[in-house]
Predict the structure.
Amino acid sequence: MGRLADKVALVTGGGSGIGRGAAIAMAAEGAKVLVTDIDIEGGEGTVAQIKEAGGSAEFAPQDVTDEARWGEVVAIAVESFGGLHVLLNNAGIAIGAPVTEMSLEDWRVQTSINIDGVFLGCKYAIPAMTESGSGSIINVSSVAGLGGAPGLSGYCATKGAVRLFSKAVALECAQAGNNIRSNSVHPGIIDTAIWTKSIIDSETFGNSEAIVEGANAIDPDTLASLSVPVGKAGLPADIAAGVVFLASDESRYVTGTELVIDGGMTAN
């Protein structure tokens, strides 16, 4: 019997990185996991890894900005596994640009995924969790939701919103007495594919030593060696360990707060 036995978890953005690591870790602790992502191949790959290890999981394609789809994936979790107890709102993107250079389109795309997706997840998961008798909402924010960073104003805005939204939801659930907790997780520099995706632009990082020569990418270990007190990047498993704790009954008295996992970046 694992720490999450008899729990059903829904993980968005579960096709890679933190989402994949958390889905695998929760399944290893006995949770039944519904993995969602717009990346079908990645999501199915996560499910395959869980099943190969003897765990229970299914995959459902999902765009977290599609409200109708949220109702469908929550229903899939309930119908497939008998309820819903954990929501990991992990899906997100990062678009780096100075505020004067960022397009309104990029601002809105980032906001729709990083904020609207989290809002919709909570809106549709809370009734199912209430019906199941308990729930833990875990919203993935960032150290960028705790402090500003030049070139990442739009990203910081979305992740700061996730932090305070999580607190407000925690208080609403406490007031409702529905036995649902809500917390945010704040990763620092974690070795995932996000560093090779849209977060990269020349003006954000300038001539940083972390830029991989000849590639539109940042090496997370090099970046961490320059900015993280412990001198190295974290791994998805480091965030997954925190997610498992927040998903489990071990954290039954933890709500409305943030779990920072950043190698000391925000210690000063």
Summary: The chain is about 45% helix and 15% strand. Strands lie at 8-11, 32-37, 56-61, 86-89, 135-140, 180-187, 258-261.
